[in-house]
Amino acid sequence: MHVSHFLLPGLAAAAAVLPRGVDHTSPAAPALVSRQGDAAACTAPQKRVEWRTLDAATQKQYTDAVLCLRTKPSKLGLSTTLYDDFTWVHANLDKAIHFVAQFLPWHRYFVHLYESELKNCGYEGVMSYWDWTLDIEDPSKSAIWDPVRGFGGNGVGYHRFNGVNPVLDVCVQDGPFANMTVAYTNEVHSPHCLSRNFNNGIEFPGDMLSFAYSPKTIAGIQAKPGYDDYRQYLEGNPHGAIHSAINGDMGPASSPNDPIFFLHHTQIDRLWWLWQQARPEHQLDYAGRKTQDVEEYTLTASLEDVMPYLGFAEDLKVADVMNTKTSTLCYEY
Ligand SMILES: [Cu+2]
């Protein structure tokens, strides 16, 4: 298995939570507000659907809205665009939001923030997910990669592994994001083409590690009884395997560079949502380690933990997003 920060956190580039350089300063984060509750205000939760069930016009409207993010200024005061803000926030928080309890709630709200910006860019449909369990016959041939009704396909060029360095010159050359330039590699400003490097750790593309997200594997994970166990299996297997198998920009902590990131994470969120629904006691089940920091290894996670968004959005508590059917989120699957 080649190195991917999603599978081997110890080798991840050091996460810098503070911005560096003149171009990359951000305003002070707004004060924390609690937004929990208000379930009564969510009377008509939006039902998220699988990408392939959207009609062609809605799919086009979605990818057009993604491209629209590239025309809007950064909300963080960066020299790059609103599109790149998502990458920047995710990359700078790398160690705070992966391989810790907060992985699921943090990405749940992150997807919600993205959906809100797509709506500001004219998208009128619902947020959708990529159910990769439908594609295990040959993930590299999934309809999700269709140039017209999907996200474009594999990068074109020399597919390879490059040790700890991501392979970011295998450019996507078809579909709505063909030859698109993205701004960051990890947290470093480093413009390059959107890259995909389909693989299974040995071959290109091979089976794209489909064993890790087969219906059978997923059923086993969904049956895990406690949050901490569940989160670890979900993050490690299907989540990490998809990042590694697509590779290119999906490999490093700057993975929101690839628009497929958000459909992948909506699917992860959907599985957690289904797991929460399966038993009523799961709704507020939350546990595990709070931080990757070895010195603070004994700290255990709590619903009162604050999730950071580095000034892109208000920080909020884990408790605020445990239930998707409140005024904060208001959706279901
Ligand atoms: Cu992530």
Tally of helical segments: 7
β-strand number: 10
* CATH architecture assignment: Orthogonal Bundle
What proportion strand?
5-15%
CATH third-level topology: di-copper center containing domain from catechol oxidase
Helix content: 25-40%
The helix/strand class is alpha/beta
H-E order: EEHHHHEEEEEHHHEEE
Strand order of the largest sheet: 1-10
Please give the largest β-sheet: 2 strands, parallel
CATH superfamily: Di-copper center containing domain from catechol oxidase
Return the domain count: 1
Q: List ligands, each type once.
A: copper (II) ion
Cα-to-Cα separation, first versus last residue: 34 Å
Mean pLDDT: 90
> What is the overall shape?
globular
Low-confidence stretches: 1-33
* Rg over CA atoms: 19 Å
* CATH class categorisation: Mainly Alpha
Pfam families: Tyrosinase
Keywords: Copper, Metal-binding, Signal
Protein name: Tyrosinase copper-binding domain-containing protein
Signal peptide: 1-16
